[in-house]
Amino acid sequence: MTINRDISAEQRAREEDLVQRVLRSFDTCEDARLGEIMRSLVTHLHTFVREVRLTEAEWTEAIEFLTAVGHITDDKRQEFILLSDVLGASMQTITINNEAYGDATEATVFGPFFVEGSPRIDNGGDLSFGAEGRPCWVEGTVRDTDGKPVPGARIEVWEADDDGFYDVQYDDDRTAARAHLFTDEDGGYRFWAITPTPYPIPHDGPVGKMLQAVGRSPMRASHLHFMVTAPGARRLVTHIFVRGDELLHSDTVFGVKDSLVKDFVQRLAGTPTPDGRPVDRDWTRVKFDMVLAPEEAS
Ligand code: BEZ
Ligand code: FE
Description:
binds benzoic acid
């Protein structure tokens, strides 16, 4: 540990004695894992407090901040998750729990806008359900790490509309820009969606204030959410991102992985579409082949 200020041997001994006393207080913990987590948490917390020589006023401010995070949280808004997201803690937990396995597709943040019970569409269907945006043809395959197609994999897709809003943020109960579908016998899938555009995370609360105080933007890079499940496979929660998006290097929740950045190829209005559907405005198309790790992969 680096303590930035010069402190006397007596002062150092007092601080270290306190750390040891707190650590020993967990000796009675019968749950070995809980004990491990609490000891590590206390060690890092005390290191932090000592390293920055936290003032009592700063500690009070931190408590007030966490209190505000709690107050704005309800069954629709989870500010603690948002805090974890912007500190990279969500992404680090995901990275640890979706260990690299062969060529399995990388996972990224889940986000707060998934809802159970999305409508089912057929392969080739349209999940926009009237959400505003430039049409986008999405296609690809789902395979296992041996390269075998995974038929019948369930693919959930959700995204924001052109104004940066998910349907759950609308004033009415409309469902839009979300659906699920299943891969065909060859592990293939295809659907119409809308071309993703950038949007800010909810930033009208304490997390938004914190971002502003440190000079950070609340913007997420443009993305399309996927969640893929299949028997015997590790659940994959991921996104695809738009190559060329200037926010790729500053995504506020650190969700971008190079392997998930895809070419959204621009097509002019009237260009023949893959399924023959007439589209009278500019549209895009993207290919996303996914690889699922086996369930036993950590
Ligand atoms: C999202 O992608 O929808 C999201 C992820 C993390 C925080 C807020 C939004
Ligand atoms: Fe999102």
